[in-house]
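Comment thread on ticket #2218

A.B. wrote:
> Attaching the input chain for the structure job we discussed in standup.
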Amino acid sequence: MSATPESLSDQAYELVERMIVTLELPPGSVFSEGQLSQRVGIGRTPLREALQRLSGDRLVIAVPRRGILVTEINVAEYLSLLETRMVLDKLIAEQAARRATPEERGELRALSISIVKASLHENSDAFMKYDKAFDRILEKASRNPYAYQAVSPLHAHCRRFWSVHQHHGSLFKSAELHATLMTSVADGDAIGSGEASDALLSYLISFTRTALDLD
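C.D. wrote:
> Ran it. Output below, let me know if you need it in another format.
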C-alpha cells in the first residue's frame, strides 16, 4: 500500500526537523525545495506542506529569490521560550501522571533506563532519540492536545540548542532529571511530576545561561 499524502508530509516533517535539530541543516543555512526533496527522497508537495509547518514552528523562513533559510538562535527569544516551556511542561507532566495508561507508564519506565544508559555511554544521538520519544509519550498521556500542540515545537528548538552547546552541559545530569520525571509520571505522582518538570527546566535555564555566558 502506498503512503498517503498526509503520511508523506508527516515523514518529511520528521526528517527535516531531525536534520535541523541535529545540525545537518545548521542555523543560517539556505536550501531550495528541489535540493531538499532529492536529499530526503520525498516529493515537493508533501515537502512543501512540511516546510509550512516548520515555518510555523519558527525553524525555517522562506526567503524570496534565495530559498528556505534555517533560522538562527535568538538569545532573548530562546530564554522566553524556556519560560513558556516551564509552564506548559509542568501542566503536561501533572496531567500525564493522572491520565497515562498502564502501557504508557511501562514505556516511560523503560525509557528512563534507556536515556540514562545512553548518557553513560556519551551517546548524544541515542539520548536525543529517547528524549523525543519521551516528549511524544508524555504529550499523548496528558490527553491535552492544546498543551502539547503548543509545546511540541518548543522542544525541537531546545534539542537544537543542546546540539549546538552540549559541551557546556552534562548529558548524565540531564538524563537523570529526565529519568526522575519519567518515573514520577509512571508512578502516577502528579505533585512529584510537577516538581521534577520544574527541576529539569531550571537545569536547562542554568545550562543556557552558562552556554551563552549570561551569568
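A.B. wrote:
> Thanks. Noting for the ticket: The first helix runs from residue 5 to 21.
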